[in-house]
Design a protein that fits this description.
Shape: elongated
Order of helices and strands: HHEEEEEEEEEEEEHEEHEEEHE
Number of strands: 18
Strand content: 35-45%
Largest sheet: 9 strands, antiparallel
Distance between the termini: 29 Å
Radius of gyration: 23 Å
Structural class: mainly beta
Number of domains: 1
Length: 310
């Protein structure tokens, strides 16, 4: 399958989970939390809640060799959430007369020169790619990749007629985790592939009961793309009879792998593991749609959507 087509589907899944459920004032009437899909929480937070919120996401699927050693390439993508707070600069007060400095007030929205600045949740895409696995017949393989994305903070002034009237305060927390990729033989020229995504980000005890603070340390809209050379993946939904027992032993947590590519050509070299239930060979629907009807279509697995920016 062409990499550009894989990326289109992956990006649709990555951003629809976020854009369908935005965390901003305008969305509060729908009571939708931000980045609802594909959440991998910090391990310490998950354990404090007795596992009610997962800190591990696992994909298991089958790959079959065509005779040569298999090569498995894995990429994990997720959103790193950013808090965007809009502050309005308050007018000078009598108490501050004769002294420098003016105070800011956090606001949900600040209209300036025909533009509206909103307090909201943003996100930046993160990608983790472990080294490829070379699978020799009859041998087990394992490759782990630890990763860390540092914290950040920016302060951007908002001006009206060149005079400061407010500011945008953006910040994101550091994230830590590990991607574990393994393979074990389960038949002649057949391997079970396992990809585990673990969130090792520290979560302070003081923030365990603060959902907003925990989400800042959570992987959002998480999904995995697997590609194989010198072989093919086996459909999880429609496996051949000889592979059914091995398929039944696969355990997928918070995510489900499907074949992606050209259905007419029965392409089987790419597997997409997503936090929503999809059928093999999902399609892209380009264009805008009503968020409620679009959400139903995506959640039912009938289609993957890709909204155009306005």
């Amino acid at each position: 399958m062409k990499r550009s087509a894989v990326c289109q589907i992956a990006e649709a899944l990555l951003y629809d989970g976020y854009s369908l459920y935005p965390h901003r004032a305008a969305a509060n009437k729908k009571n939708r939390p931000g980045a609802t899909l594909g959440l991998v929480y910090p391990q310490s937070y998950s354990e404090a809640r007795n596992g009610a919120e997962p800190f591990v996401m696992q994909t298991e699927c089958l790959a079959q060799s065509h005779g040569k050693p298999l090569v498995i390439e894995v990429s994990v993508r997720f959103l790193h959430l950013i808090s965007r707070e809009v502050h309005a600069l308050l007018p000078p007060s009598p108490e501050l007369a004769g002294r420098e400095g003016r105070s800011f007030e956090l606001v949900s929205e600040l209209p300036v020169e025909g533009r509206s600045y909103e307090t909201a949740q943003e996100a930046v895409e993160r990608k983790v790619m472990p080294p490829p696995l070379l699978l020799e017949a009859g041998q087990r393989h394992r490759e782990d990749l630890r990763f860390c994305f540092s914290a950040g903070h920016t302060f951007e002034p908002i001006r009206e007629h060149d005079e400061p009237v407010g500011a945008i305060n953006r910040r994101h927390e550091a994230l830590q985790g590990v991607v574990e990729v393994g393979a074990e033989p389960v038949g002649e020229k057949l391997f079970k592939i396992t990809v585990r995504i673990v969130n090792l980000t520290p979560a302070p005890r003081s923030e365990v009961n603060e959902q907003g603070a925990v989400l800042m340390r959570t992987f959002a809209s998480t999904h995995t793309v697997l590609e194989v050379r010198n072989g093919e993946f086996v459909s999880m939904a429609n496996p051949p009879e000889a592979c059914r027992a091995a398929i039944a032993s696969c355990k997928n947590y918070g995510i489900w792998p499907v074949l992606v590519g050209d259905k007419e050509k029965a392409e089987r070299t790419t597997m997409l593991s997503a936090p929503i239930t999809l059928a093999d060979y999902p399609q892209i629907a380009v264009g805008r749609a009503d968020p409620d009807s679009l959400a139903k279509e995506v959640e039912s697995g009938r289609m993957v959507s890709l909204q155009e920016d306005t």
